[in-house]
Amino acid sequence: MNGNKLNAAANANDPQKSDWPDTVYHYCDLGAAVSILQNKRLWATHLRYVNDFSEIDFGLSQAFKEIQVLRAEFQGEAMATVFVNACEDGLKDHQSWHFYACCFSREKDLLSQWRAYADDGAGVALGFSTRHLQDCWISNYELHLAEDTSICKVSYEFDPIRQLLRDQLGTLDAHLSSPAADDQEACIKSGRLAADRVLRACAAHKSAAFAEEKEYRLFAQLRHIEQLGSTKSPGSSPARPVIAENIWDQIDRAMQSNRAACRRYRIGRFGMTPYVELEFQPICVQKIILGPRCKFVRQAEAVQMMLETFGYPTGSVSIDRSAATYQ
């Protein structure tokens, strides 16, 4: 394999570190806010049932285009071709993964968010600490199966997906420099791992038309439980695709915990909507912004009493109001 060519591909774009804000905001109506704060649980909705009907598919279409670019670019490179084919096969298996996300914005007072998600401005924006939310990522059902961080910044550009594929090619080239490396097996494993990472990137990738939302997502990622079960015969282990290390151990534990029970359903804007519940600790909640149509003084007092009733330390959550003059 042409090492210089692959290293150049991997370094085509330097990855940018996530410029995470200290706080991200979940816009919701008052009923949802009471439920979230009382139960200390967020609802992560299946991405096929959110307001952007192109979720995941939009990123996948771009990933498949990049696969074709790589196939042409590395034509004649046998190991690179094995990698590309394995990655493409993994991406075609995307229906067996189920992505659930709870959505946030880095903006605490965005009129479009108030109108779309917070009862036309009569709701609130719950401010969660990104650091604490990450530290106490404690789903009862061990749903956080992805190897990367559980909180993702949504991308509105194609570069992160392209970069993932090319970075994995660079990693593969470094692996194959070892005299003991099994070229074919390494290429297939690397291609499938790249597919898993790209799928997760696709779940955090949206059209630029949504860029104003400046969205972050808290993820839960599950492989289809029925498909996993159907691959297992008495006295044998299920057939297991090559994915990130330790993922299958986590899946086994989740299945033993009756993972089917973790999926819940509600009637949403688009009919029957699957979701999962994600627990958090009180320290995660840092701020509450009252919407522009809330009567501030009375509602602020009620919110403060509610926080004390539900066990949030006195003074730990600041309460503010929207600066928007919307009514």
Give the strand content.
15-25%
Topology order in helix (H) and strand (E) letters: HEHEHHEHEHEHHEHHEEEHE
**pLDDT < 50 runs, ≥5 residues:** 3-17, 138-149, 224-248, 254-261
> How many domains would you count in the coordinates?
1
Give the number of helices. 11
Q: Which structural class is indicated by helix and strand composition?
A: alpha+beta
Shape: elongated
Taking the sheet with the most strands, its summary is: 6 strands, antiparallel
What is the strand arrangement across the widest sheet? 5-6-3-2-8-7
Number-wise, the strands total: 10
How far apart are the termini? 63 Å
Secondary structure: elements and pairs:
Elements: H1 3-10, E1 23-28, H2 30-39, E2 41-46, H3 57-73, H4 78-92, E3 97-105, H5 111-117, E4 124-129, H6 130-135, E5 151-153, H7 159-176, H8 183-202, E6 215-223, H9 225-230, H10 247-256, E7 264-268, E8 271-279, E9 285-290, H11 296-309, E10 318-321
Parallel strand pairs: 9-10
Antiparallel strand pairs: 1-4, 2-3, 2-8, 3-6, 4-9, 5-6, 7-8
Helix pairs in contact: 1-7, 3-4, 3-8, 4-8, 7-8
